[in-house]
């Protein structure tokens, strides 16, 4: 399992570790609030305290990239494995999707969510460190699947989200036995014949590693996003990424 140490990874100006105490969890929650509430305008629980928090936080491991010179949390993902999800009453994704198709796999799953990076540190290094930490966590824990929701903004009326989903579903649709069903389905707009849309940076990471799109998007009313449920079998991950991004 990823050790909660302050050992630097790849770049000496950053450290990557799991939160060891409530103060470090709070740092991640404050970063999430800054990105989700202040930058994106999302409705998040914990607004009165200036944090983003929910009931799942108490059960999750919180992966944090810290800027060593300032001690500031600049990137975070929270990780919920199958055993933790049982104690929490389910994965967070259960609130957005019917995951019945995955019922026999839950103990082999890690769910990654609540991803965000400080706006001053979005050049690529912090994202690479987060993915390295996630892969190390999953592989050392012996889990077989990484799952999570990737959010597509709808500020343009949904045109970009529709193009992204259509392209990814054609390229990386999961086998039918792993399809999930959105609890609140998002209705795609009619698309013009021409036009492309850039993938959000976090979604690029999933795609590069070989993740599958597991069905139609769900609508997240609090974030006003179309959320894709993604599943990454560890057998699909290129060994080059494992060697490059982990300390095994």
Account of the protein in words:
- This protein is an alpha+beta fold.
- It has a single domain, classed as Aminopeptidase (3-Layer(aba) Sandwich).
- 29% of the residues lie in helices and 25% in strands.
- The chain is built from six helices and eleven strands.
- It has helices at 22-39, 82-88, 125-140, 159-172, 201-209, 239-245; strands spanning 8-9, 11-18, 61-67, 72-81, 97-98, 109-117, 145-153, 181-182, 212-213, 218-220, 225-233.
- Strands 1, 2, 3, 4, 6, 7, 9, 10 and 11 form a nine-stranded mixed beta sheet that branches.
- Mean pLDDT is 90; it is low at 4-11.
Explain the layout of strands and helices.
Blueprint: E1 8-9, E2 11-18, H1 22-39, E3 61-67, E4 72-81, H2 82-88, E5 97-98, E6 109-117, H3 125-140, E7 145-153, H4 159-172, E8 181-182, H5 201-209, E9 212-213, E10 218-220, E11 225-233, H6 239-245
Parallel strand pairs: 6-7
Antiparallel strand pairs: 1-2, 2-3, 3-4, 4-6, 5-8, 7-11, 9-11, 10-11
Brief descriptors of the model:
globular, alpha+beta, single chain, Aminopeptidase, nine-stranded mixed beta sheet, two-stranded antiparallel ribbon, 6 helices, 248 residues
């Amino acid at each position: 399992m990823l050790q909660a140490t302050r050992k630097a990874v790849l770049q000496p100006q950053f450290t990557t570790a799991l939160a060891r105490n409530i103060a470090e969890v709070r740092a991640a929650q404050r970063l999430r609030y800054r990105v989700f509430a202040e930058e994106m305008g999302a409705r998040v629980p914990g607004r009165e305290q200036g944090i983003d928090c929910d009931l799942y936080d108490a059960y999750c491991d919180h992966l944090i990239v810290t800027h060593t010179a300032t001690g500031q949390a600049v990137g975070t993902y929270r990780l919920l494995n199958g055993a933790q999800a049982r104690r929490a009453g389910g994965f967070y994704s259960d609130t957005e999707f019917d995951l019945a198709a995955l019922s026999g796999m839950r103990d082999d799953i890690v769910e990654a969510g609540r991803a965000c990076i400080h706006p001053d540190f979005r050049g690529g290094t912090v994202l690479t460190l987060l993915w390295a930490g996630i892969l190390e966590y999953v592989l050392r824990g012996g889990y077989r699947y990484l799952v999570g929701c990737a959010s597509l903004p709808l500020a343009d009326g949904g045109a970009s989200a529709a193009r992204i989903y259509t392209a990814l579903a054609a390229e990386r649709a999961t086998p039918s036995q792993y399809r999930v069903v959105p609890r609140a389905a998002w209705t795609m707009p009619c698309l013009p014949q021409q036009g492309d849309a850039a993938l959000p940076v976090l979604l690029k990471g999933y795609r590069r590693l070989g993740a599958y799109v597991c069905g139609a998007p769900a609508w997240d009313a609090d974030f006003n996003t179309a959320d894709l449920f993604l599943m990454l079998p560890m057998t699909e991950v290129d060994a080059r990424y494992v060697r490059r991004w982990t300390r095994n």
